[in-house]
Fold:
Amino acid sequence: MPTYDYVCLACRQRFDVFLTYSEYGVKKVTCPLCGSLDVKRRLNRVRVLKSDESRMENMADDFAGLDGLEDDPQALGSMMRRMGSQMGTDLPAEFNDVVDRLESGQSPEEIESALPDLGVGDDE
Ligand SMILES: [Zn+2]
Structure:
């Protein structure tokens, strides 16, 4: 069972919570010291995560800060370029192709139809 590290925003107490994957995000987590519900998961300290997975979580945080990207291919393209530089060297050639197309203003749908071998979703 994974261990999640939390910090209480009310009293700064740090504590561990054991949650199953189905409980996570559903079950209310409260501070064991003061009982506050105002707790925050400390994302980068989750012991069960491998480095790749925590890196993906950081990227998910980047995504969360950028609303409406599907309507703004150029912003999506520049964000993907930033993600690509974080990921390092293992990017398929298609990745740069997609980023170039996004930055030139093509929609994701246009790109998918232009690149049928892309295999969108395989890496998710
Ligand atoms: Zn507390």
Q: What stands out?
A: The first strand starts at residue 3 and ends at 8.
